[in-house]
Each structure stands twice: as structure tokens, then as C-alpha cells.
Amino acid sequence: MRVRPIFATWILLVAGCGYSIDERLSRTYARPETLCLIKDSCVKESSGVAASLRHPGTYFTHNDSGDYPRFYRFNEAGKVIQEVRVKGATAQDWEDIASFGRDGEKFLAIGDIGNNGRKRRSLALYVVKEPDLQATEVDIFEKIEFVYPDAYNAEALLIMPGGREFQICVKMQKGPSKVFAGSLEKAGVIQTLKAVGEVDLGGFIKESRMVTGGSVSPDGKFLALRTYMSAYEWDISDGTSGWTKKEPMAIRTNLDLQGEGIAYSADGNSLITTAENQPCLVSVIRRK
Known about the structure:
The chain is globular. The longest helix has 5 residues, at 7-11. The chain has a single domain (7-286), classed as Tachylectin-2, Chain A (5 Propeller). The protein has a five-stranded mixed β-sheet, with no helix packed on it. A hairpin with a 2-residue loop joins strand 6 (96-102) and strand 7 (105-112). It has helices at residues 7-11, 13-16, and strands at 33-38, 46-51, 58-63, 70-75, 80-86, 96-102, 105-112, 123-129, 137-138, 142-147, 154-159, 165-170, 177-183, 190-192, 194-199, 211-216, 222-227, 231-235, 249-251, 259-264, 270-275, 280-286. The chain is mainly beta. The chain contains two helices and 22 strands. The protein is 3% helix and 44% strand. It starts with 6 loop residues before the first helix and ends with a strand.
């Protein structure tokens, strides 16, 4: 979803966040750095990002609504090295992508979860096997269709450790953002997601509250969400039940005016972020 926060929003960054940007727990991150710029015209609005688990050092992204059902692989120099179409999929409003492992195989889950007008009733995830470097198209491994108890817009997809449960954090301008959970093992039926908690990132500026992306670390021990103004990390090493009740660590992000994508690197030692601008700014936030 494209919004245009004014420059004053960024000046008020610290005042607008619900958690202090200097807060640190047991992990610490360095200041964000520019990793690269994706200048290829095919990446117009990077709405999600995921690290390749088969080929570390490469990443997947996709455009927001308006593109074909396809995603792109790029390297750390910002070069798009692969375009892959998802056969049989539709791309009404793709908002996030996640890489994960299950039973020794590597997968991608693409979230067609955008619902700006709150008019879409049924939404979907497309699960595909992570393609090799020569692929130009990929089959759907599982199509997961779902509904909420009420209508929500969302941009943050989380594949929980083990690859059998997914969670979605909805995007709210006011109040806390609800988190819903569903199963990745219920293809062929439309499941109703269950509310499992909520996160309140606080702040009086809406851009500091609106969750625009999410990721779970490859080792399953940490979970990250981002807004337009910052990122937050939760320790889930003791399990995923009740993680929303914990206080997260705030992580500084680059001041990209349309930041939506976030993902852990394949080794889990960095966070990668992308912005919905062209050329696309790709940033890296490294663990100290």
C-alpha cells in the first residue's frame, strides 16, 4: 500500500515510537547501512523480501498490487538475476514473502493478504518450493485460503518455526494490531484464522503503528516486525505461545519513506529491509 508520510514524520521519530529506540536486550544491532539499490525497472514497489535458504546471499522480492503473479531474485549488488512466475496463482495484492524450511525442504510463502478497502473476504498464501537458479516458473505446492472473523488489511506474514503454522499481523492506524494464526496444512479448505494476541507499538504518529512486514529467523529463535519508522524483535526461543505479551527490542531502520519489507538473512545475523520506491533501497542491519 502506498502512503506518503511527510518529512516531519521522520523528525518526530523518537517521540512517535512506543518503545525507546535505544532500548537493548541481550542482542544488539548496528546502525542500518545501505546494502544496494535495485535499479531494474521490473521492481517497481518492493512490498516484501525474503532470504534464499538454498543460495545464501540472494534474496526474493515482489511488487505490490498491479503486477503479474511473479517474484524476483536479486543479489547483494542489487542485480535482478531471476524472474519466476507462479503458475496458476493470482496477484491481487501481494504484500509479503517468507522463506522457511520443512521436512528438509526449502519453501517460499507469498502472502496475497492486502485488503485496503476491506472488501476482500477470502485471502490466500501461495506456498512454492524454492526454485533453482535457472527456473522461470514454479508450481503451487499448497494454496492456503483463509478468512478473518472480521475484515482486515495486512502486510506482515510470519511462518512460525517448523513451517506448519503461519501468523499474520494486521495493519492498523489506531490502536493495537491483532495477530492471527492459521495452519499451513489445511490446503483445499477455507479456514478461519484465530486471534492469538496483539501488539501495540504505540506512538501518536500513525506511521509508527502501521505494521508493514515481518520475518522469523531461520533458527526459529527470533521474530521481527517493522513499521514505516522502525523495527522490533521478539525472543521466541522459549516457544511461540504468548510472544505478543513480551516487550520487544526496538531496532533502528533506514529512513526510507516507504519501507515495507523485512527479512532475516540466511545465517540469521542480519536484517534486510526494502522500500517501495524505485530504485529500491535495500538496507542491512547487522548484529554486533
